[in-house]
Design brief:
Layout (H helix, E strand, L loop, with lengths): L11 H5 L5 E7 L2 E7 L2 E5 L4 E5 L5 H9 L1 E6 L5 H7 L9 H4 L4 E2 L8 E2 L4 E9 L3 H4 L1 E11 L9 E5 L2 E4 L12
Antiparallel strand pairs: 1-2, 1-5, 3-4, 4-9, 5-8, 6-7, 8-9, 10-11
The structure holds flavin mononucleotide.
């Protein structure tokens, strides 16, 4: 007999929510912004394609659509406060880079900035908008990527919903043939 009880459908995303919480930075003609994002998924190895949902109500959406580029920045647990802050404030109201002390460097190929305190940064261009009208879903191609070699195993944050986050744990190496 199963001891499992029904899970409200509204809680499903907390089980399946994918990889690390990231900071999506955008810029266009002197305006710039950063938002927290966790609804993303890998779609291709190389060139890397990343699908993500950026809700149309967000200021980030406006800048992403206008510039057609963004950066995906990987924060570790030490940036937890900024991660929650950037996900609970609007860039139309405040300068989140200043508010959360996020310094930036210019990217090599796109006009959106790279966040210095993040251990990895991905420069992205919109590759496909076919699911944007229905789902605010954008396929991004990563055109350049950066990593701090001293922090390759930085502990990432993983969203469980309603303020709950997992911190990445130890890595285990298993005999898998998956690339
Ligand atoms: C942990 C976390 C994950 C989030 N993931 C997403 C996401 O995947 N897509 C999205 O559109 N909004 C997501 N949000 C909400 C936006 O970050 C939030 O609405 C933000 O204030 C938008 O900022 P903006 O209007 O300055 O662009 C998330 C928020 C948090 C706290």
């Amino acid at each position: 007999m199963s001891r499992k009880s029904p899970l409200p459908l509204s809680e499903v995303y907390g089980l399946l929510e994918p990889g690390p919480v990231v900071l999506l930075a955008t810029a266009h003609k002197g305006r710039r912004n950063v938002m927290t994002l966790s609804w993303h998924t890998m779609m291709e190895f190389e060139p890397p394609l990343v699908g993500c949902v950026v809700a149309r109500s967000h200021y980030s959406h406006e800048l992403l659509r206008a510039s057609r580029v963004c950066t995906i920045n990987l924060p570790s647990t030490r940036l937890a406060e900024a991660v929650v802050g950037c996900g609970n404030t609007g860039g139309r109201q405040i300068d989140k880079f200043a508010e959360f002390g996020l310094r930036t460097t210019a990217a090599s190929l796109v006009e959106s900035p790279l966040i210095d305190a993040c251990h990895a940064n991905l420069e992205c261009r919109i590759a496909d908008t076919r699911l944007a009208a229905a789902y605010d879903f954008y396929v991004l191609e990563v055109v350049a990527a950066w990593i701090d070699p001293r922090r390759r195993n930085a502990r990432t944050l993983h969203h469980r919903g309603w303020g709950a986050f997992m911190k990445a744990g130890p890595t285990v190496q298993l005999p898998s043939r998956m690339r």
